[in-house]
Specification:
The protein has 102 residues and is α+β, with helices and mostly antiparallel strands. It has a domain of 65 residues. Helix content is 23%, strand content 15%. The chain contains 2 helices and 2 strands, in the order E-E-H-H. The longest helix has 12 residues. It is elongated, with a radius of gyration of 20 Å. The two termini are 36 Å apart.
Length: 102
């Protein structure tokens, strides 16, 4: 559904029905290793720790080498105990979040 715009003379109200969500969004999550795209997931829902952990376990971690550096921003869904366990299990390394502010 497209966003709707309206015009009316000053002081006159514009009446129209409007749906709750104006547009659908397509999101992409990808993994790069040595400049090469190793995984790509497209999704239309909101990201949460279940979806992130699924992508991490089934797509990213099997495609990267052990002891690889995984750089993430500070999104809240990276903080789950399951995320930490997955990274430590697959890589054999201690998991710690890197927060880089520019």
């Amino acid at each position: 559904m497209r966003n709707k715009y309206a015009w009316s003379p000053r002081g006159e109200l514009v009446k129209d029905e409007r749906k709750g969500r104006a547009t659908e969004k397509m999101n992409i999550m990808a993994g790069l290793s040595e400049g090469t795209l190793v995984t790509l997931m497209m999704y239309e829902c909101s990201m949460d720790y279940n979806l992130f952990n699924f992508w991490l376990e089934h797509q990213l971690l099997p495609e990267i080498q052990k002891n690889s550096l995984i750089v993430m921003d500070n999104a809240s869904f990276y903080t789950s105990e399951k995320t930490k366990e997955l990274v430590e299990f697959f890589s054999g390394c201690f998991f710690s979040r890197l927060i880089h502010l520019i």
